[in-house]
Write a structure and sequence with these properties.
Blueprint lengths: L1 E2 L3 H4 E11 L3 H8 L9 E5 L2 E5 L20 E4 L2 H11 L4 E11 L2 E11 L2 H24 L1
Antiparallel strand pairs: 1-6, 2-5, 2-7, 3-4, 4-5, 6-7
């Protein structure tokens, strides 16, 4: 439904976790219509619970007065051990929780959450150069064969 394409460019992904997400009825209907944005989203662990901030799920077009708030804070569903592990990891400087994708699995909304470290500009340039070199090698191999 939604993916954060810039996350893999801006962050070095260290670990990935799948989490459930607590949604209201109109949020689910809006997601099923394929409308969501993870561009400014991030995860936070406070009080022994995991929360997702900054996800934009627009109001459902056919909703009534019970429609949801588009940028509300949403609770993530994780096991206690996972929450504790992520809490310890995010206490380290430079590590943060970044959502990679939002999807349905067996009718339930899931979010792929990554423990990530921000990349420097030269790291991003190095990754682009490596990707371009691999593309050139593949083109040369195809021309030869």
């Amino acid at each position: 439904m939604a993916s954060n394409r810039r996350a893999r460019h801006d962050y070095a992904i260290e670990d990935v976790v799948e989490a459930g997400i607590v949604l209201t009825g109109t949020e689910v209907k809006s997601l099923r219509a394929g409308r969501a944005s993870l561009a400014e989203a991030y995860g936070v662990i406070t009080g022994g619970e995991a929360w997702l901030h900054g996800v934009h799920i627009p109001e459902y077009a056919h909703g009534t007065w019970t429609n949801h708030e588009p940028r509300r804070v949403r609770k993530l569903l994780l096991h206690r051990k996972e929450i504790d592990r992520l809490a310890r990891a995010t206490e380290q400087p430079g590590l943060t929780l970044v959502p990679l994708s939002l999807y349905f699995s067996d009718g339930k909304a899931k979010i792929e959450l990554a423990l990530a470290r921000g990349k420097r500009t030269y790291d991003k340039r190095h990754d682009i150069a490596r990707r371009d070199a691999a593309r050139e090698i593949e083109r040369a191999v195809r021309r030869r064969g």
